Records
---
Amino acid sequence: MFPLITLPGISGSGRSHWQTLWEAADPAMIRFQPSSWDRPDLDDWISALDRAIGEAGAPPVLVAHSLACLLVIHWAARREPSRIKGAFLVSVPDPESPVFPKVEAPSFYTAAPAKRLPFATLMIASSNDPYGGVDYARRKADNWGAGFLIAGAFGHMNGASGLADWPQGRMLLEAFSAGLRN
């Protein structure tokens, strides 16, 4: 199994978020630690991801939610992507969405690079995500060469979505990671 690094979005993942619950069940998971969860700065978050990758000891699978999905895309455009085995991106937000946190995260309020990612990627979307529509997510998956799956109608797929430890998501992550071994 590959090291897993969880990348929560803005404000971090609370106690009822599936990422936090997965970390509690698997102490080997590494959570990246930026300087601020509430005032995200893209350069700081990229540095925090660099540190987490360095701690992983082997190319990891990134398990990103929301704003951190955009972090992964920006990181891949600036860094050595061979340091990553794969990316599992959940609820990719659209910076042009009216509810995007433009004030709190202005450095993320920019178009994400559109080039193909050089590592395996699976994007999971919700059919009723207020932060990013299915059409946007599908276009981005095509741009990035990512697999794409609509998990159902779960809003932003966060703690408020009622997913609890999201066993279907964990199974998807395990299947995705198993495919990386080949």
---
Amino acid sequence: MSTPARRQRAGPALVVLAAGASTRLGENKALARLHERAGGTALELLLAAGAALGDAQPLVVTGHEHAAIARAAPAGVEVRHNERWHEGRSGSVACAALYRPERDLCLAPVDVPLVPGEVFAALAEEWSRCSAPENGWLGPCVLQDGVQRFGHPVILGRGLARLLKGFPAEHPLSALRAQAAPLLSLLVASAAILDDLDSPADLARLRARR
């Protein structure tokens, strides 16, 4: 009698973090338009690129302006509100871990909206190649002037995600990263992993780049 095939673990869950108040930008980052065509908001662009990860139901974690983001989210996307969004990004990641229990999480901040699908696909492939380590952390990096610079999105293992249950929301994610084993990196070609949307000048620059 043959042995049943081992059940394959689902790939990382795509989580878009969109909870901030966007005070410096002056408008909601998730809904900021980077081009005028349909699908041109920061949220839509990031979700479209993140589809390369292969997650059937992406999760968007909101805070400020939850209702507006929920109305604008594409069909098939789950939107959840982090009521303690003002306490820090770690709280939004903990919220994601609650709604995606026992899943590895690919965290894509809406602040970095121009990451191409190739980066998401490469991260997913590398994560699988490394056997999806339970307590691992995988971040993309680029070389600039001979210096390695890390950006987003990142993948954290389901074991690290479990630790978020008792993790203070005000603590930075770097404190969680310090507990990762192994701590992995992937060299990518796209500097868009560093492109932060924070101010009106950033918005103009990213619009020009599109």
---
Amino acid sequence: MSDRHMTDATVRGQFLRFAAVGTAGFAVDAGVLTLAMAGLGLGPYAARVVSFLCAATFTWAANRAFTFRGADPARPARQWARFVFANSLGAAVNYGTYAVLVAGVTLVREAPVLGVAAGSLAGLAFNFAASRKWVFGAAQDPPSRT
């Protein structure tokens, strides 16, 4: 197996684990949002801040332990802050993709859920790339044999 093929397989595996962690993070986000509103009496905006921070913390920890196991374990607070920042940018990519498609594509304007799907995929791709390269570093990549 070539180094390139091994690296591609590693990235694919990381992407699938990242997506699985994100799915679990969605459940944390939705659950905390519901509890914050019903149990703590927070409004939808304040509750969303709480739920986002809880979900981001959960997904950061899970990605650190599961997706990017080989990442540098030093400075976890800085790594968490980078992760939250990167995911905030990913949310902007998600929304921007949605907004551009709704404004420019008749089919998406008529079925906005298509824009939500496209935005989600764009945000996922951005968040994965930012997490892999900027948050967790390239330390998890297999060493080159050359």
---
Amino acid sequence: NNRGLLLAYHDRSDGGLCVTLCEMAFAGHTGIDISLDTLGQEDAVAALFSEELGAVIQVHHEDTDDVLAWLNDAGLGHCSHVVGTTNSDDHIRITSAGNTLLDETRIELQRTWSETSYHLQALRDNGECARQEYDALLDAGDPGIHVQLSYDVNEDVAAPYINSGSRPAIAVLREQGVNGQVEMAAAFDRAGFRSVDVHMSDIIAGYVRLADFKGLVACGGFSYGDVLGAGGGWAKSILFNNRARDEFENYFHRDDTFGLGVCNGCQMLSQLKDFIPGASHWPHFLRNFSEQFEARLSMVEVQESPSILLAGMAGSRVPIAVAHGEGRASFESPEMLEKSVNNALVSLKYVDNYGQTTEQYPANPNGSPQGITGLTSEDGRFTIMMPHPERVFRAVQYSWCPDDWIEDAPWMRLFRNARKWLE
């Protein structure tokens, strides 16, 4: 692993070697050809289903001799065996002593493997979403999550402004139950801001004035446990408090300010849209169609929009973290949805692994119409989105990333765009 030669690893436990190999083939969407002859066991059932200590590793063919030599040096040579290889026809084949024990398509075996989970999910959650996820297994050509950028991930567009020594203050706003403020502060701090922790009680009590900030970000979490709906309690703590209401309304109407709302903060800001110039088209956010909290890595495409935070990013497709139970965009009317789309005020959309806008679960985790998951105000100063860019602004926050991602992930550009806009 230190030499970068380990492609995959799976312990042999429940179900033994047979299940281990199938699970690896399912995860990799590939076929495998397996021979039990090298194991030296006459009993094929014992070889396939023994749950004794063991593991399967995958390496490149040209590295096999080196890997076997290292295993031998470690005293494991007597129990190390080359059992097979991947194939290109997407079949899972297992042979022993010239006899074919199993030869099935990977898709059929994976659907059999997943069928029980599908039926349980259909009973517990939204049956249509369960069916869509189960049927997605039929797509043998699914290319998987990928990255397509319209900009250089390693370019720091905020560098000239950071070097000036000026670090504008940004209010990292939170309320009872919000939990994303630390990651958000770290992202804006890296982009050249001075992140200031601002609790709603500070504003209501008059200890903090939004007049002192040019940037404001409402963070994700579960404000007031989502009582009164997602972000509802948080929004009403502003709407029904004169001092807080005045602070936010004055802030939104200045022309030198910007704002970002993520997840719970997105839900909250959407309910303040009457205060935000050019935000009348913003939707409310309702319970996911799946009827479950969705925490996963989803593909989104950045749309062409006036959002200052997504400047120069249009056309990019990037995986991003999502974590919400009420993320389905619900527009006041079909006309508002049409206005958002036709006036290029939609900033992010869920896409499938082919890059197509989707309403299909789980690529679209909440069922939002036309895949909409981010919007901007007409002048681009205020942006709301359900996904969490602050959770994946560093390359190491992804389980896998392209080799050219040195330190930053693509979402770091969003935070640096904010710093560049302020100049």
